[in-house]
Design a protein that fits this description.
- This protein is 43% helix and 11% strand.
- It is of the alpha+beta class.
- The protein folds into three domains: 1-99, TATA-Binding Protein, CATH 3.30.310; 131-254, Orthogonal Bundle (Endonuclease III, domain 1), CATH 1.10.340.30; 257-317 and 324-335, Endonuclease Iii, domain 2 (Orthogonal Bundle), CATH 1.10.1670.10.
- The protein has a five-stranded antiparallel beta sheet, covered by helices on one side.
- The relative contact order is 0.14.
Length: 353
């Protein structure tokens, strides 16, 4: 991982607003609207680390941030960058989609779904991030047959090899996510394979070229204003992008709140907990679509948000407690990890892809 297992005293002080109040700002945000420990550890984004207890450091918008919560306040500081208060608050509000009232949505989903009501109290403040489409797309191409600890390490290697260096904290360098042009070089696939990307190297470099020669990064962002079905169709035409990855990108970066990523875990939950009798022994494209339609009808236009809260694996429904030394079991790990249990192994025990 990026940080050592025990925070240094200097880092702990740096990550505390009381130690350096002039470097920190805050905006109002109650835990019912956002829980950093759930959202940033959940497998939506792979660029955040708990750098000291309750403090999350990561890269957002080409800058390095540390965030923490204290009561109804979301505290933040930005390193090696000059931003005014209005701009930093705008970035955070956009990233966490804080203009969406989560408490009201929880109430509506609970009224429509008794199973949701049983889960919601244990997982408050779970909301969907609004990420950069390029970063989101290439991150989720890497999630195929993978788990959070290894995906996080892969994305870190990708950024170190192809991204612009931003700053260094505690002797650790931070890099921006690579630009599209950085991933289109003739040797990109070979370099990615050397970094342990395996067969995903071809998909990353191939999708980068396809976008560069077609939509371009601006066109990818413009899919935010396209209908959900159109955005999904465009994404599924890219190398290494199937229905689930496309739906993750639609949900997490293209403003398609109705997108419901479906994997075998979600399929089993739909059948076992909701009695949805779809498909045979495998998750067919037709069953995938019908399961998504079922949840969209049940939960409404933000079904992708509701699913993030309501589908933890059987046996993992435990109220999460912020902890520095123990992994947090989060509902998003069901959506975006191929194997939850493997995802809980220490990163150092994993082999490269």
């Amino acid at each position: 991982s990026l940080f050592s297992s025990q925070p240094s005293p200097a880092r702990f002080l740096r990550d505390a607003p009381s130690a350096c109040p002039s470097l920190w700002r805050w905006l109002p945000c109650p835990p019912a609207e956002l829980r950093l420990d759930l959202v940033l550890s959940s497998g939506q984004s792979f660029r955040w680390w708990e750098s000291s207890p309750g403090a999350w450091t990561g890269v957002l918008g080409g800058r390095v941030w540390t965030l923490r919560q204290d009561g109804d306040r979301l505290w933040y500081t930005v390193y090696a960058a000059k931003l005014n208060a209005a701009e930093t608050e705008r970035i955070l509000r956009d990233y966490f989609q804080l203009d969406v009232g989560l408490s009201a949505l929880y109430h509506a989903w609970g009224a429509a779904d008794p199973l949701f009501r049983k889960v919601a109290n244990d997982f408050p403040g779970v909301r969907v991030l609004r990420q950069d489409p390029v970063e989101c797309l290439f991150s989720f191409i890497c999630t195929s047959n993978n788990h959070i600890s290894r995906i996080t390490a892969m994305i870190e290697r990708l950024c170190q090899a192809f991204g612009r260096r931003l700053c260094c904290l505690d002797s650790r360098p931070f890099h921006a996510f690579p630009s599209l042009s950085a991933l289109t070089g003739a040797d990109a696939e070979a370099r990615l394979r050397a970094l342990g990307f395996g067969y995903r190297a071809k998909f990353v470099s191939g999708s980068a070229r396809a976008i560069a020669e077609g939509l371009g990064p601006e066109g990818l962002c413009q899919l935010r204003s396209a209908p959900y079905a159109e955005a999904r169709r465009v994404l599924c035409a890219l190398p290494g992008v199937g229905a689930k990855v496309a739906d993750c990108v639609c949900l997490l970066s293209l403003d398609k709140a109705e997108a419901v990523p479906v994997d075998t875990h979600v399929w089993q939950i739909a059948r076992q907990r909701y009695g949805v009798a779809l498909g045979g022994k495998s998750l067919t494209p037709r069953a995938y679509q019908e399961i998504g339609d079922f949840f969209r009808e049940l939960w409404g236009p933000r079904a992708g948000w509701a699913q993030a809260v309501s589908t933890p694996l059987p046996g993992t429904l435990v109220p999460p407690t912020p902890s520095y030394t123990h992994p947090i079991i989060s509902p998003f790990q069901v959506l975006f990890c191929a194997d939850l249990r493997k995802g809980q192994k220490p990163a150092g025990s994993q082999h490269q892809a």
